[in-house]
Design a protein that fits this description.
Blueprint lengths: L9 E6 L3 H13 L2 E6 L2 H10 L4 E5 L7 H10 L9 E6 L4 H9 L4 E4 L4 H16 L5 H7 L4 H28 L5 H14 L2 H15 L7 H19 L9
Parallel strand pairs: 1-2, 1-3, 3-4, 4-5
Helix pairs in contact: 2-3, 5-10, 7-8, 7-10, 8-9, 9-10
């Protein structure tokens, strides 16, 4: 963990009904520079998310009263909820591929396994801090690479968005069942990110490629961070048509 002060203070809602897990998550998140509200029921988590602003929701899949997936569905459907659009992560002790895919399709940006390592949790927090505090798309770099043609930049970003959507569709499955198959797509992705001005995702792809070439486990912090930034960059590309993002 970094000893310095965090660049961006994160407000986290932690919904966890297991006392030991809740205590661990809360202490670890606080040590990473987060302000944490805790609860142990789904209905209480929904009430808090509706009335308070959070940067990140960490929701256990099997909460009393309302499970994590149903909670997130109710929150996203409530136009008046303060934290309606906050990034949500699902936590669970054991999930098969089908269950993980269902949760991702339900709107969770990622899955936090239990037990979780401090390094993995730190990677998730850093990815969210980057998403809030730093631009994921660098228009200046992209325009310089493409001869200052904004039309070319927008066209290539459209192709990148399609590439990321395809990769996201089976990323979790390949990561856990055939991690070697990700090495070449990650290598190619770095070049695409360079042309499109997506340096943060490019760096995360390079770090994960190095991990996989060294045969590190698919649950490494590099894999967690790439997964989070993959989702965040897809979102940023989806909004890029209406909101230009520039980095000094």
């Amino acid at each position: 963990m970094n000893d310095g002060a965090p660049d961006t203070l994160l407000h986290v809602l932690l919904a966890e009904d297991d006392a030991v897990s809740q205590r661990f998550f809360a202490a670890a998140l606080a040590a990473l520079g987060c302000v944490v509200d805790t609860c142990d029921r789904g209905d209480e988590a929904l009430r808090l998310a509706r009335t308070r602003p959070y940067d990140l929701l960490l929701l256990d899949v099997r909460l009393p009263a309302i499970g994590g997936a149903d909670l997130l569905h109710a929150l996203r459907a409530d136009a008046q909820a303060v934290s309606r659009d906050s990034v949500a992560l699902a936590s669970s002790a054991a999930l098969d591929f089908s269950q993980r895919r269902t949760l991702l399709a339900a709107g969770f940006a990622g899955i936090v396994p239990k037990p979780v390592t401090l390094a993995t949790l730190e990677a998730l927090v850093q990815a969210q801090r980057l998403r809030l505090g730093h631009a994921l798309l660098d228009d200046t770099a992209a325009l310089q690479a493409l001869g200052r043609s904004r039309d070319s930049m927008n066209a290539l970003r459209g192709l990148l968005a399609a590439e990321l959507t395809e990769l996201a569709g089976d990323f979790e499955h390949r990561l856990h069942h055939d991690p070697a198959s990700l090495v070449e797509p990650l290598h190619r992705l770095q070049a695409a990110c360079g042309f499109c001005g997506a340096p943060t995702l490019a760096a995360a792809a390079a770090a994960l490629e190095r991990d996989l070439r060294q045969r590190h486990a698919g649950t490494s912090p590099a894999a967690t961070r790439f997964g989070a930034l993959l989702a965040a960059t897809r979102s940023a590309l989806g909004n890029a048509g209406s909101t230009a993002v520039n980095v000094p």
